[in-house]
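Recall that a protein's primary structure is simply its ordered list of amino acids. Everything else, from secondary elements to tertiary packing, is in principle encoded there. The following example makes that idea concrete.
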Amino acid sequence: MHTRATLLALCLLSACGGESGPLDAAALDAAALDAATDAQVGVCGDGIVDEGERCDGDCPSACDDGVACTLDTLLGAAATCDARCASAPIEACVDGDGCCADGCDVTTDDDCSASCGDGVVQPPETCDGDCPSACDDGVACTADALVGAASSCSASCSFVPIDACVSGDGCCAPGCDATRDDDCSASCGNGVVEPPETCDGDCPTSCSDGLACTTDTLVGSASTCSASCSFSPISACVDGDGCCAPGCDATRDDDCSPSCGNGVTEPPELCDGDCPASCDDMLACTRDTLVGSASSCSAMCSFTPISACADGDGCCPAGCDFGRDDDCTPVPPAVVLVNEVLYDAVGADADGAFIELHGPPGTDLSGYAVVGVNGSG
């Protein structure tokens, strides 16, 4: 602020009449009065912030209070020395203004950062106040795992499909079956025979093992994958069933063929295990002959009667005698006795006198003669 004395010392061109003009007291008084008036009002641009001015020489040209959430505005102008900054709080959630206003979060304002614990799930958070402590989706064939942590709002559940065939994990994974994973149940129709199935896609419709001595039976059904063949051995000796069961033979089962060597004589065998090696019926007058052989179970003895009279064969056939067959026993001559039946008294013979010949019955009397003898002489 200039004083009046100072103003009086100033040489104003308008008051002093130029550089060489004489001083005019009246002009000086007028100039001093004008200067005093100007000093009271203030002169913008003199570098002095006078009353009524906001600035002078140091006026702001832009405004920034360094606070993100205030809206900084330049009011007035440097030319009128009334330039000034006004800062108003930002309350709206607006992307890209650099401010995360109160009540805003990353879901409503991309200038906000996630704040774990505010109850709002904001990227990259996976939870906030509702974080899981354990995981189970109720699906047997997923591996349920808790990853991250509630304290960092990063907790989440991972449900990874199980694709391996592993017994005891509670899951029958796609492509698995009961033969590779005991968590699977048998599924009739999947082409895999799984217990208790007996077939699956390859079920028999009839049964025949090609053996005569089994009873072939189809049990179960293909529709339930329970079809199977039962082959029961036949043990009974039954004619006409096509089977000669163990222990049977042709004498008890007409399906059996004779078997030489089984110890049973079966037609047309003549012996089996008891075949004769030689023949002798202990009769002198039969010719004993061994025919056939034991190896073919056809051996037998033939006993042919001897009828011819032949010396030295040990037989004296009927009708033969020692004279024609020396095997016959010689027969001594028969003893024939003559008995007189009627005594001949002295004198002439009486009528009816006869004699009796006595000997073995059938004795041939050829060549015998009865000759009378006079007893008296």
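Residues 1-63 form one domain. The first helix runs from residue 4 to 9.
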